[in-house]
């Protein structure tokens, strides 16, 4: 099975070129545009994620199919309500996948790749993780609901295609009804911002209503500053892919107790134990 997103790669590359040219002929002092080394890293990360992701898809097909066969009800793909359920369930699964990957450091080590660029353009959308295994638990319930595996994969591809277009500064704000219901470039710029008020906000995939419901929505006010709170200062794809895993390993090895080791793995990025029995979250440590 060839992932549907692969068919869109030529269009992605063409649109990246068009957006880059738009900065050349219609520059905007408030927008960062493109930087050649950064863009090359993003494209390399995207290519690597597809190479690694293909065999992993074969594993997930087997797991989804196994759960679907034991589901109490197997839903019909010819029913419009199956597609409605799929759309909402997939988008809710993406919200919790995305939120968990920001709030648990072990998951953040995978997702940090996507936030590591200090630029925000269409090439940033392709800067993806080389450890797709961390996403598996969040979509397994859809197979147990009786949704056929091929439909789950298709909707995941639709969501990724939609989110490609969110990674741009060239589109400012869309009409209010769209901004209220759907994730937009404005909402997603907030998500990528390291401004204090923007951290850990706007996790939605296609819809922004989950953020409104669960209290994680933040509108775009000030211009976003992109990257990490502690930027890694490298364009080396291997370091981009693994730097936070290396930082976690160093923290776990240096920890004084198993409680602290587990804290470095499963608490928020940047967590550090305070001396003594009390513990708290500090801004220092970790790339957030």
From TrEMBL:
GO molecular function, one term: oxidoreductase activity
Highest taxon, organism lineage: Bacteria
Domain Fatty acid hydroxylase: 83-216
Keywords recorded for this protein, A-Z: Lipid metabolism, Membrane, Oxidoreductase, Transmembrane, Transmembrane helix
InterPro entries per the UniProt record, alphabetical: Fatty_acid_hydroxylase (IPR006694), Sterol_desaturase/TMEM195 (IPR051689)
Top-level enzyme category: oxidoreductase
Coiled-coil regions listed in the entry: none
PANTHER family from the UniProt entry: ALKYLGLYCEROL MONOOXYGENASE, STEROL DESATURASE-RELATED PROTEIN
Name listed for the protein in its UniProt record: Sterol desaturase family protein
Localization terms from the record: Endomembrane system
Membrane topology: Multi-pass membrane protein
Keyword match Transcription regulation: no
Transmembrane segments: 54-73, 80-97, 138-162
Primary location group: membrane
The enzyme's E.C. designation: 1.-.-.-
């Amino acid at each position: 099975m060839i992932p549907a997103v692969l068919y869109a790669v030529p269009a992605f590359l063409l649109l990246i070129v068009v957006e880059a040219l738009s900065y050349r002929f219609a520059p905007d002092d408030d927008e960062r545009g493109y930087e050649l080394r950064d863009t090359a890293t993003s494209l390399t990360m995207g290519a690597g994620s597809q190479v690694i992701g293909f065999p992993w898809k074969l594993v997930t097909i087997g797991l989804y199919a196994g759960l679907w066969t034991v589901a109490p009800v197997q839903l019909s793909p010819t029913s419009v309500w199956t597609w409605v359920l799929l759309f909402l369930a997939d988008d809710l699964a993406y919200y919790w996948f995305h939120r968990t990957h920001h709030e648990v450091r072990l998951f953040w080590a995978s997702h940090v790749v996507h936030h590591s660029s200090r630029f925000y353009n269409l090439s940033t959308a392709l800067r993806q993780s080389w450890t797709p295994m961390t996403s598996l638990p969040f979509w397994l319930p859809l197979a147990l609901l009786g949704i056929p595996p091929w439909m789950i994969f298709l909707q995941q591809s639709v969501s990724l295609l939609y989110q490609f277009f969110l990674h741009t500064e060239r589109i400012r704000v869309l009409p209010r009804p769209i901004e209220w219901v759907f994730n937009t470039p404005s909402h997603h710029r907030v998500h990528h911002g390291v401004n204090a008020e923007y951290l850990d906000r706007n996790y939605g995939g296609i819809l922004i209503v989950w953020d409104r419901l669960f209290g994680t929505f933040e509108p775009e006010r000030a211009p976003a500053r992109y990257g990490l709170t502690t930027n890694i200062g490298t364009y080396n794809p291997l370091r981009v892919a693994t730097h936070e895993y290396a930082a976690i390993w160093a923290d776990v090895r240096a920890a004084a107790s198993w409680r602290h080791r587990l804290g470095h793995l499963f608490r928020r990025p940047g967590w550090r134990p305070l001396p003594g029995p009390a513990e708290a979250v500090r801004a220092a440590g970790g790339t957030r």
